[in-house]
Design goal:
Elements (H helix, E strand, L loop, with lengths): L1 E7 L5 H12 L4 E7 L4 E6 L6 H10 L4 E3 L15
Antiparallel strand pairs: 1-3, 1-4, 2-3
Amino acid sequence: MQTEILRLAGIDGAAHVERLTRTLDAIDGIDDFNISPAAGSISVRYDERRVTSRQLQSALQQAGYSTGQSAHASGGCCGSCGGA
């Protein structure tokens, strides 16, 4: 399993969370996800044998969100948040 944290602009209400939930639920290979409107990010755990990071980002962009990876993508961590 791979965990990736993506920054998303504009997830500031229930309608956005609902749209993101539907988008992520429709992607085969996603095991779990957490949407954080306050942080403007989502954390997605997925099976990299069934879905790629590029496919994930493409689906989010098609849903109307621009994405940016955080330092936690691909299991790396910059250490600034205290989470390794």
